[in-house]
Amino acid sequence: MPRIWVEKILDEPELYIMRIDDDRIRYFEATWDIPEGITYNAYLMKTGDAVVLFDAWKGEYTEEFLETLKKLVDPKEITHIVTHHTEPDHSGAIPALLEANGYRAKLIGTTFAKRFMEGFYGKKVVENFHAIKDGEEMRIGGRTFRFITVPWLHWPDTMITYVVEDKLIFSCDAGGGYGMPDAIDDSDEKVVQEYLPHVTKYVVTVIGHYHKYIVQNIKKLRSLGIVEEARMILPGHGLIWRRSPTRIFEHYEAIGAGKPTKGKVLVVYDSMYGFVEKRMRIVIEELKKNGLNPVVYRFTDKEAPAVSDVLGEVPDSEAIVIGASTYEAEIHPRIRYTLYEVLDKANYEKPVLIVGAFGWAGVAGKKIETLISRSKFDLVDTVESRGMPTKEDEEKLREGVRKLITWLA
User: Fold this and answer.
1) Which of these, 30, 186, 239, 284, is most buried using a 10 Å CB contact count?
2) Is 56 in the same domain as 193?
3) Rounded to 5°, angle at Cα 153 from 158 and 223
4) For residue range 15-52, what is the model confidence (pLDDT) as tens digits?
């Protein structure tokens, strides 16, 4: 049963969060395994003669959204609806809300947002739509609302709202994360520490394809002076940031830049019958012997980790070791798919060591080399051989690890 939160965040302006914890979802965007769930956050502000709604909930929860909203205000009293990003997990309840509102409210968003809303929900929804220009300011209820576009975080329609007098940033997907934290804000450090890995996983899987825009857009916001002076950052998913507002954007910047954690090496491999596994044990042993911290994900006949979890480990890894079997003159399917997503979603300048095993023809290593050559990753070495590793193979594996360590030095 989804948990619903309604809490007053500020007295002046009168500001509320309406949050639902989606514990039904299993695969975000029908792709990414998220057993940790996700929240959808909407915000309601009463200021002067205006009642402003910032975003909504997923369409699946429209009935719950309207019931929750009615505890705070009659939907007919809403004067403005700000849509920062029209993906249906934030906009799905808006058509029913507008109907309950009698279409009185002005809908505010980017030009792209207007186009997408019409495409998703029809022309009626955008009849009273104001398409903002980047940096445009509007006076609403005695306050100044500044709208700043942040395209490709993670759609072209994305913007944030900065309430000038109160130094509030409504950031929607920017600043969000997976998970259903047992708090609405960052006041409890234990909650934050448990939550941040879900943020990393979210950023890589959802925004990773456009990760260069993370750094660019946060740099843009910093240049406007609003990040450092922000009193609060209020995302569309996860925790509100008010104890340390800049922290979430700093975390995003680190992910966007692929800032490494010293000594962390991501090790990903398949092993059908134990031949790759034997090689990877040697590699892992050598990594540990040299003071490195291998984080291991293995695909075997007993286990298959979520690729979304593997992706979440890439940004702060210093290096990656990929172990693959040759399978029907190709890379093993599990590794092939994982590697495809890594190169698409988490393409960073990091060194890679390839380890391979085969029965009658070694193909996987060469095919991985080709993929790596088309990416930002740097190939350190490929150690691939037939069947059970020999003493000579073992030495080549240890030498491959030593080359990786030299690369990191």
Assistant:
1) 239
2) yes
3) 90
4) 999 999 999 999 999 999 999 999 999 999 999 999 99
Pick from 233, 257, 281: which residue ends a domain? Answer: 257
DSSP string, 92-156: TTHHHHHHHHTT-SEEEE-HHHHHHHHHHH-GGGGTTEEEPPTT-EEEETTEEEEEEE-TTSSST
Structure tokens at 50: 């205006």
Give, in order, the Cα–Cα distances in Å from 217 to each of 148, 220, 238, 392: 10, 5, 20, 50
3-state class (DSSP) for residue 79: coil
**Residues 242 and 95 occupy one common structural domain:** yes
Which residue range(s) make up the domain with 30? 3-257
286 and 226 in a common domain: no
Helix, strand, coil percentages in the chain from 3-state DSSP, rounded to 5: 40, 30, 35
Structural element, H or E, at residue 352 = strand 351-358
Q: Are residues 89 and 108 in the same domain?
A: yes
pLDDT at 195 over 90: yes
Q: Partners of 6 in the beta sheet?
A: 18
pTM over 0.70: yes
**Residue 233 shares a structural domain with residue 296:** no
Looking at the structure of the chain, the number of domains it has is: 2
How many Å apart are CA 322 and CA 313, to the nearest integer? 13
User: Where residue 178 sits, what CATH number does that domain have?
Assistant: 3.60.15.10
Q: What is the rounded CA–CA span in Å between residue 67 and residue 64? A: 5
